[in-house]
Amino acid sequence: MSEQPPYLRIADELRRRIAEHVWEPGDRLPSRAQIGHECGVGENVVRRAQELLISQGVLEGRAGSGTYVAEPRQRVRVVRSSAREQPSGSPFRQDMKALRLQSDWESRTDAKVPAPTEIATRLGIAEDELCVRTTYEFLADGKPVQLSTSWEPYAVTGGTLVVLPEGGPHAGAGVVNRMAAIGVTISHAVEQPEPRHATAEEASLLGIQKAALVTHIRRTYYSDEGRPVETADIVVPAAHCEIVYEIPISR
Asked: Which of 38, 226, 229, 235 has the largest count of CB atoms under 10 Å?
């Protein structure tokens, strides 16, 4: 049997101290040099152990200040399902209501943005063709739990009441309902989830350590004619959220 890597042993030791209330939530940990001296390892081993615990939400790093024991935080359940977009409200709001959490989101829309190469490919349009881009920061009890950047071809929504996803009479109704309002029926969505490390910007927005684990979901909605009408990059922090897929069964 192979021996446990040193950084995992140190991570277990740090967890033990937190569980035994040697350190309480909000406490600042001793320096890496001090912990390494006490445990007989180098500072790099301690750093890897702390980075692991930060990615799991046990610790949190504060730039220029040190590493602290994270305050207890409820892990948010994020449900992905084609059946969850309802005329009465957003799926995110439904999920947060089930957890008795206050839901909200902040957004910014930029109209007529040239499509980058990857986005153009996903939408089946020419590179630099104009799109409406909307960035979102989703909040649960005021804390960020999800990021999303949505792209819609301007040729689909331009000149209609739904051109601004968060403006007009259909603001916040969701892609499926907004498209239905202009006669576009969405038949299905394709999602490609993959794990990766957060970028510096994502980590800052989500309040997590740089390079912490996130799930990156590339989602594209298709009309019943097979045309991509929206694509989005959704980023969910692994330490704060669990992703659940509901799969409707036809009978």
From this structure: 229
